[in-house]
Records
---
Amino acid sequence: MKTCLLLLCLVAVSTANLLRQQFFPQLDMVFQPLENIDYQNFFARPESQERLNYDDYPLPSSKEKSAPYFTKTIQRESPKYGDVITWKGIQIAAGPKSSFNDKKHIVRIFDDAYKTLQHITDDKKKPYHEAYERFEQNNSEDANMNATQLLMKHQYSVEEHVVRTDDGYILTVFRVLPREHKNVKAPVVFLMHGLLGSADDWLLMDKSLAYMLADAGYEVWLGNARGSKYSRKHVSKHPAQADFWKFSIDEIAHHDLPAMIDYALQTSKQQKLFYVGHSQGTTAFFALASTRPEYRNKIAMMYALAPMVYMTNTRSPLLRMMSPNSPFYDYLQHQFGNGELKLSKELVHTIGGNMCQNQIGCKHICGNVNFVVTGMNPTNMDADLVPVIMSHVPAGASTRQIKQFGQAVAANELRKYDFGAEINTKVYGNSQPPRYNMTDVKVPVALYYSDEDWMAHPWDVERLHQELPDVRDFYRIPDEHFNHMDFQFSRRAPAVVNQRLVDSIRNYH
C-alpha cells in the first residue's frame, strides 16, 4: 500500500513538472531560491517579441584615435548567473538571457561621451575635491536659497506669480523688473529652463543671463515647467500619485508654455516677447511654434541655447540607452517606471556614473544625474560653484520626458510621445505619433551650439538649421570643450553666450 502511494506521488509530481514546463516556463525563475535569481535577466524581453534592430545603428566612428586609458578600474564581483562586461573601466553586468551581452553594446552607448572627457587632467580634478571639502564644512548660503532669495540677495526686484494651465497644473513664474526703471515699457524676455532644471538655473552665477538682462533694462520672466520644484501642484492631483506625472514634453509645450507666455504678456501689457530656451526649453518651444500658429505673432525672436530637437547623434549614454532599439531599453523601462524620474545610486552608476567617476574622480559630481546625463567639464566651471549647482539640480521631471528624448534617438525625428501602436491609434488616429515639422516654425530664431555638447550634437543642430525657415544667427561657441551645462554655468558663459544674446536683443529691429 505504501509503495503504491509513493508511486502515485511520484507520478503526480512528474506530471505537474511536465505541465509547468510546457505551459508556465516563466515559473522556473519565479520559484528559484532568492539567492539564485538572475535579476539582470528577470525582466528580459521574450525572444519571440519583436524588437527594432539595434545593429542598424553602426558603431561610433572617428578618425581620431582614443587617448590611452590610465584611470583606475573599479573591480566588482561577477554575478552568480552572469558576467561583467568591461570596457575602459565601464562595467555592465549581463547574464546569458540579457539583450546586452557584448562589449560592442557598451561601446555604442559610451564611446562618443568617453572621448569628450579625455582632455581632463589630474590637476583639473583636484580643485573639485577640495571645493567639496570646503562645502561640507561651510555650506554656501546660495545652495539653500530659492529663486526669490537669490534675486533679492543680488538686489533685484522680484515678484512671484502663479499660473494655472488649462489642464489644471499650478505653475510658479518669477518676474524680475529692470534694474533701472524708465518711463517706457521695458521689453519682455522669457527664460525657460532645460531638462531636470528650474528657474534657479538662470540665477546661480554672479553674471547669469537673468541678471545681465535685468541690468540691460529688460523685464525678465523665469518659467517653470510642471514637475519642477516650483510647479508641483495641481487642482486635483498630488505629486505623490503616479497620475500627476503622466506628462511628456508635449504637455509642457502645449499647456505650460502658452499659459506662461500669455500671462507674462498680459501682466506686462506687451504684444510680443523674446524667448530664450536652454535644452528642453528649446524642445518645448519648437513643438509649440510648429503646431500653434497663433503664437508666432507673440514672439519677437527665439534664442535656442543647446537646441534639442533632433537626437540622432546624441552622445548622452542615458538617451542612447533609452532608445527603443537599444539592448538596454527593456531593463531601463522597468527601472524607470511611469512616475517621477527618480534614479537609484546603482542606476546612476550604470547610465554613466561609473565612467564619470573613472574620468573625473569625484563621487559627488558623478552621483548627480544632471552631470551624468548631460556631461561634465571641470575645466570650464568654478570649483566652488559646482556644489551649489548640485544643490539646485535635478529639480524634477517625469520619466516620460526622458523616454520621449530616447524615442527621438531611434525615430530620427522629433515626434509626439509614443504610447505604442494601439494607444497611438486611439490618441493620434495613427499607429505612429505625428512628427513636429520644423519648417512650420515661422519665427526668427538664433541657434547657439557647441562642439562637445552631449545632448545637442552639432550634426543634429545643423539639420535643424537647414529646416528652420528663419534663422537669424547660427553661432558656434568658440571654446573647444564647451558642453551642455556650460551654457548656464561656465565661467566663460557671460562672455561667449550671454553678452552676444543681450547685444542681439538690443539691436533687434
Note: The two ends are 103 Å apart (CA to CA).
---
Amino acid sequence: MESMYKFFGGPVNPKKPAESFFLQLWFLKRLGLWAPDTDNEIIQKLYTVWSYFYRFFFLFTYTTTQIMFFKDAENMTDVAEGFFLLLTQISLVYKVEMFYRNRHRIRACEKLLRSTLFRPNDDEEDAVIKESMILTFVLGMAFLVPALMTCSSWGLSSLLAKEVYLPIAAWYPFSHNNSFVFALVWIYQIYGIYMSACYNASTDTFASSMISHANGQVQRLGIQLKKIGYSNDDESIKNNVDALKSKSAIIVDDDERMIEINKQISALKRKHGENYGEVIRCIIYHEEILKFCAEIQDIFQGPIFAQLMASTVIICMTCLLLLNQMENIGVVVPSLVYLFTMVTQILLFCWTGNEVIYSSYRLTEQAYFSNFQSFDRNTAKAMLIFMQRSSKDIVLSAGIIFQVHLSLPTFMGIMKSSYSYFAVLNSMQNK
C-alpha cells in the first residue's frame, strides 16, 4: 500500500503526519467543509456560500424527497425500500453539520499532529508514524471505493432493467413520466448519491484516521518508555531542537510550548538525573495524548454514534430487501455491495478504536522493558506513578444518551442486533 500512497500523495514523510489526510482533504475542500487557508475575506465568503448551496441541494433537499416517499408506502417492502438509503442520508446530514460546526476544532487537531510534540524523533518512531499515515490512506480507500461502486451499481441497474426506473425511492411534487423530466431527476439522484458517498467517505474516514493517528502516538510513547535507562545523552532534546531548525519543519504555536517543556525537563535532569527527566517527559506526553483522544471523542462521538445506530437498522432493512427481491438480480447486486459498504463503515470506527485500547493496554508492559534496575528512588516513584496512570486503558466512546465503546466487541454486537431485528421483521412479514 505504500507504493499506492506514493502514487497518489507523494513520499511518506513521518515528520509531517498530517499530510496523510490528502485524500480526505481533497474531497472536503470541494464539498465545502474545509475552507482554503487565506486571509482574503471575499474568497472566504464565496466559499461559505458554496458550502451552504451544496449542502442545501444535495443533502437537505435530497433527504426531504426521500422522507416524503413514506406518505405513499403501502407494505413492508415499500418501507424497506424507503429505509434503504434514508437512514444513511439522515445520519449523513447530522454528521456533515456537526463536522461543519466543529471545523475549527478539527483543524486544531490536524494542526496538533504537525507540532513538535507529536513528531517522531528516530527511525523506530518514524516506522510507527509511517504506518499510521499509510493506514490513513488505506482507510480512505477502503470506504471510498466500495461506496462509489455502490453508487455505480445503483445507476447501472436502474438503466439496464427492462423498465428504466429511478435508483432511489423518493417523492417529488411533480410528475416525472415525461422522458426529459425523468432524465433530469435521474441525473439529480445519481449525482446526489455520489456526493453523499463522498461526504460520507471523507468525514467518516477523517474521524477514523484521527483515531488511527492517536494509536500511532500511543505506540510511539511505548517506544520511548522502553528506551529509558539505556541512554545517558540528551538525544531527545537534540532531535527536537534539530527538527525546529530544519527547513522542512512546519513551525506552529505548539513548538514554543515544546521548547519550554524541554527546558523544564533539562532542569529536572540536572537536579534529579537523566532517567527522571525522561520519565517526566513520558508522563507529559501521555497527558497530551489523553487530551488529544478526549478532543477527538468530544468532536466525533455524536456523529459516530448516529452512524452506528443507523447502520444497525440499515443492515437489517437491506437484508430484508434482499430476501424479498432475490429473483431480481438488478436489486440483489447493488444491495450486496451496499451491505458490504455499511459493514465496512462501522468496522473502520470499531477496529481503529480497538487498536487504541490494545496499544494503551501495553504501556504498562512496555514500562517494564526500561532499565528500571538502574533507577534511583525518585525515578522509580515517578515511573510507578506513570504506570498507575496508564493502567487504565484509553477507550474511545461514541454516544449521546448512552456511551458505546469503539471496539471489536461493539462491532459484533451491532451485527447481532441487526440480525435480530431482521429475524423479527421477517417473521412479521410472513404472518
Note: The longest strand covers residues 397-399.
---
Amino acid sequence: MANRGGKNRKELEENDNTITHVQCDGLAVMKMVKHCHEESSNMDLAQGALLGLVVDKRLEITNCFPFPKSPDENMDEEEYQLTMMRRLRRVNVDHFHVGWYQSADVGNFLSLPLLESQFHYQTSIEESVVVIYDTQKSARGFLALKAYRLTPQAIAMYKDGDFTPEALRTLKVGYENLFVEIPVVIKNSPLTNIMMSELSEMMPSSEGNNFLDLGTASVLENNLRCMIDRVDELYQESMKFNKYQQTVAKQETVSFLLFLNVRY
C-alpha cells in the first residue's frame, strides 16, 4: 500500500506540481453540501465559486457561494461574482477566486461544459480546481467530495483546438489522464473539534454503531445502470463508425472503377 501511495504521488508530481493537496474548511464543505442537496431535490445541477488562498503548494478553500439561477437574462453572472467577492472582502473574508464546485449523481459528472469551464478557470487561475460533490453517494453515508484538475496534456489539447484522433494520440490524451485527482483534507477549527469530541463521548456506543449499517445496494444499482447506459452509447457510436467506414470504402471502390474506365 505504501508503494502504491508513493507511486500515485509521483505520478501527480509528474503531471502537475502546482498544488499537492486541497485543504477545505468545514464551513465551506457544509455550504457546498447544503446547496447541492437543495438543487438535487429539484433535479438541477448545483454550481458555485470557491474562495480561499494558496499557501506554498497547498490550496486552502475557506468559503464559497452559489452561482445565481435566475430567469432574468439581463443578469450578468460575472458581475454578480465580482460583487459577491467585493462584499466578502469588506467583512474580512477570503475573497480570492480559487476554483468552482459542482454536484454529481452517482459519479456521473464528466461532460464537455465541465471540461471547457475548468480549462478557462485553469488558464486564468493557475491553481484553480473543480470540486465534485456526489449527492447520491453522500446520502448513503459516504462523503463523496473530490477535487480535480486538468492535466497539462489536456490543456495543450484545448489550446490547439485539435480534437482529431491523431492529435489525441500525439499528446497521449485519454480518459485515464484527462483529469488528475487532488487529495482533499477537511479541516475544522479547534472549537469544532472539541465539540465533536464531547458529542462522541455523550453518544452511546450502541447508537454510534448504527451508522455503520447503511446499505449500499441502491448505490451499486445506480452505478450499474449508468454503466449499462454508457456501454449502449458506445455500442451505438461503434455501429455508426462501422457504417461510415463501409460507406467510405464503397465510395473509394466506385471512384477507382470510374478512374479505370476513363483511363482505358
Note: Residues 1-14 have pLDDT under 50 and may be disordered.
---
Amino acid sequence: MEYFTLNNGLKMPVLGFGTSQIPENEVEEALNSALEAGFRHIDCSPIYKNEQGIGRCLKSWIDSGKIKRESLFITNKLPTQGNRASCVEKYLRNSLKAMELDYFDLYLIHFPFGIPEFEGEKYLKDENGFALMDTKTDHLEIWKVLEEMVNKGLIKSIGLSNFNKQQIQRVVDNSTIRPSCLQIELHLYFQQTDLVDFCESNDIKVVAFSPLGSRGRKFEHFKNKELIDDPVLSGISKKHNKSPAQVLLRWITQRGIGAVPKSSNLERLKENFDIFNFKLTNEEMELLKSLDIGFRFFYFGHLKGIEGHPEYPFRE
C-alpha cells in the first residue's frame, strides 16, 4: 500500500474502500471482504445509510485483534442537512456513535449547499416537488466548529467535498486549520486538472470518488459502451496484463491523487488493491490524459432544484 502525507502530518492510504450505495444488510460482508483484500482506508457518510453495519464490522475486527484502530483511516462526512454551525457536533457525534468509534481520521463537509433538517428518509420538498433549501449556508462558521472538533480530539483532519475553487479559497483564507483533503468526482472522462493543480498549490490532497466512472452507465458518444470499455484504456491494460480498472486506478494514483473505488465482490476488491506492482509510462499517462472530455456524472439531481442554491458548486 502507498500512503500520502496530509498537510497535518497524518498518513492516509492512497486507496480507500468506498461504501456508497452498499445497503446496510450487505455492507458488513462487503467491508469484511475489503479488509481481507488489504484496504485500510474506509470512506463513509451518514447519507449512505450503512454506518451501523460498517461499525459492527470494524468492531469485530478490532475486538478480535485482527486489526488495530490506529492502522485504519476512517473518513466520514457532514451531511447536507447538517450544514450549519449549530448542527456540526450533533451529526459528528451521531456518526461516531453509529460506528462505535472515538474519532475519525478525516471529516469532510460533504456538499457546499445546505438543506433543512428532516426526520426519516425523505428530504423536505415544496408543493412542486423541489427541495427546500437553507440558503444561508455559511462555510466559515461551519469550519470554525470543525476546528473546535479537531481540538476536542473527535477528528484528526478536516476537509471538503464537491467544493469549487472559489469556495475552497474562501475557507483557506479564513481558516486556522487548513483543509487537508478535497474529495471530488474524478475519472478518465472528467479529470479536473485545473482544480487538482489548484489543490496541489494549496497543499490539499485530492481524493477521487467514482474513479472507474459510474458502472452501468453507457454513452451514445462511445457506441453505447461504459468508460471501462474505452479502447485506448483496453490497449494499455493488455500491454501490462492488468484489467482496465487496475490501469485507471494506477493512472489516478500516479497523478498523486487518492481514490475510493467501491465494490462488494472479493475478487474485484483484490484486483482493485493490486495496482502497486506496475507503473504506467509517461507516454501512457499522456495518452490517457488526452481522453478527458469534461463529462460529469453527478449533479446531485436527486435534490430537485438544488442548482438554485447560492452555494451550488458546478456553475463554473
Note: The radius of gyration is 19 Å.
